[in-house]
Amino acid sequence: MAYDGRRNSARIRKKFKDKDVDVVINVDETLLLFHLCGEKLIAPTEIKHVGSAVQKDNEKWGATVMIACEFQTSSILPPMVIFTGVYCAKLMTQWAKISKGKSAMDSTSLYMSLSKPMLFLSNLAKVIFNESHWMISNASIIYISYLTSMFCGKTIGLIWDWHSSHYSADVMEFIERCNVDNATETQIVMELVDEGLTPIIQVPDVAVNKVFKSALKGKYHTYRPGLPIKIGEKVSISHETMVQFIVEAISDINIKNYDEPFIRDGFKRCGLNPWSENQSLKAFKHHLDKLEENEVLKTMFQNQ
What is the bridge-based pairing of β-strands 126-130 and 80-84? Predict the structure, then answer.
């Protein structure tokens, strides 16, 4: 499995170097559940049936967040958030109208007044609605368009995993149209992380997702005590509040990267720096060697 990781990373590095990319972005979908259930319950001894007053959760109560790590700035780009809803209906139209042409992340503006929360948040995130919050080809196309608006005129090296929504015929056709559009001169160079290798050479998986979710939980637990809560009822928060948590968590991570660029180091650990020389690839070798020392991971890789 380590060999496959080396081969996959080497292919991506060579492709990006040959195409002379300006930016390297590794994107991953991260699932957020709105209602987290505890894994344990406290109950008296000798009780045969134990239940919870909390309503049963299901996979529909969540959102998908596109976490995009950029190598040279060692940062997470403004995210795209996918909620469950009706595609191109009222909510999506409202978010789209006020966010058009405003995609740049401005960390200092997080401390401004939120008198118009949707307008404020739409400057920092792309929000769309699907029948389910899962990734589909249309969402991939919207996301690629979002990236091109951030890096107009640049050659973008885009890495994401081997999910059918990332390389469908519609998506590939859209990328081809982007690459021949003389009006923008933006180029998309797409590469895929092979199946089974995402825990090894996918930067968000290796270095960011756990930190992001931990930061997001911190935002939620700080917010929750100020709400009226009744036993057995779920805590209800708005789309704007959820997006605000996401944007603030990402901003906190980016600020930390000013002093400790762990996102850039994540690219080096995953062997995804196209400008690598032998010295900088030592971090990748060390990362793979550590994985092979872990017997659980080693067995999992062998079985896959």
Answer: parallel
